[in-house]
Amino acid sequence: MSTRQIFARHAWLEQGWQRDVLISWNNQGFITAVEPNSMRPDSAESVCWLLPGMPNLHSHAFQHIFSGMTEYRQNPADSFWSWRKLMYAFAQQITPEQLEIIATQLYNEMLAGGYTSVCEFHYVHHQPGGEPYHDAVAMSAALVRAAQRTGIGMTLLPVLYQASGFGSLPPEAHQYRFTHDKPSFLAFWDQLFSLCQAAGVKLGLAPHSLRAINPDDLQAVLSHIFAADATAPVHIHVAEQQKEVDDCLAWSGKRPVQWLLDNFDVDSRWCLIHATHMDEQEYSEAAATGAVIGLCPTTEANLGDGIFDYRQWQTHRGHWGIGSDSHIAVNAAEELLQLEYSQRLVHQQRNICCSDNEPDVASYLYRHALQGGAQASGRLVSGIQPGMLADFIELDADNPALAGLSPDYILAAHIFASSRQSAIRRVWTRGIQRYQAAGTPVLAQQADIAAIRQTVLATCTSE
Fold first, then answer.
1. Which candidate in 217, 309, 325, 396 is catalytic?
2. Tens digit of pLDDT for each residue in 188-217?
3. Is 274 one of the annotated active-site residues of the chain?
4. What's the pTM?
């Protein structure tokens, strides 16, 4: 079995930046050795600054095509719920062929933005009107092909979507493309299981939200999935909007996170997406389960969701990671910056996301997002260490934001100072270079993207 190597003058390992690190991996793309204070072999690729790749724990790929096209007030109380109407309108039209084009472009942008794997929370399953495609997994297969073309690692999270509101209200017409009953979803998931195993994709489950599922059906689905793969990740939208909290209280007498914890065996396999609106008891009990909170700061800001109480979660030593969600921004550093800055605005202080033991904000943010994202993805991507996948990001030593800095400041400059002029030079997944700044081929045809975008524009302006 042959081995490949890269030599980093500075590599960001579990202990922080280490000097002269020789990293080796095998043909399957798994790291076999990490050796600081080494000499560079003549055959090894050489880089100056090397980071582990960041997992993106929450993505709706199709939504990227209309990023920037909903920033026009249609009524005085524009909110997530009015944005959702526009999203639904586009979701009625998208085809498997279009989805593959959009996702291929998006995943290439993710690689350029420092994400080396993605958790795809996918719910557009059927034809418009709700009739399944002849190939029931056609939409999901388009996403898998996009991941294979770009080389990004994937965790596919097919969405169980059954209702339009709490209490199993019947789905509305524009939700028919999303919905399954329990038997059809189990058959659908089993078909995906075979597809994902063949493609090297981790398969999990995404109950869309408490308002959109039948609780009894979800229990049965979870049992079926864990019997096939006891490590399958489970992601769910929860407590994103205050209206969701109010509606859950009206239905059950409990807040959504509390109801979820009281009725399901939430554990470290779960990822609670957003969880923006929790009370003190929910923060404490959710953290105790070992579940990850999926934070999507740029999307949460764009949709007016509110601000997650990071200090409260930190008090309970809760796990968390980041995602780009609707892809209003596709840049891991920007999500971390937005998270820290949102907390500074709330608390009117600086340097919030850190600890007494780790006062370096950039290092603290990156480490916790990396660990939480790896846990939520169910993949071996938690850092540059033996047994993990060889997913790397090279920072450009010649970038003006980084030039002349010591290791103490490089990561902070990447997150807080590079702004829209990315400091990322090259990206590898499974030890294969997937991206290089300047000259990287665009994998999706720009004419196809433009044509799809014109369809979206017509949809948005007609609503």
1. 325
2. 999 999 999 999 999 999 999 999 999 999
3. yes
4. 0.95
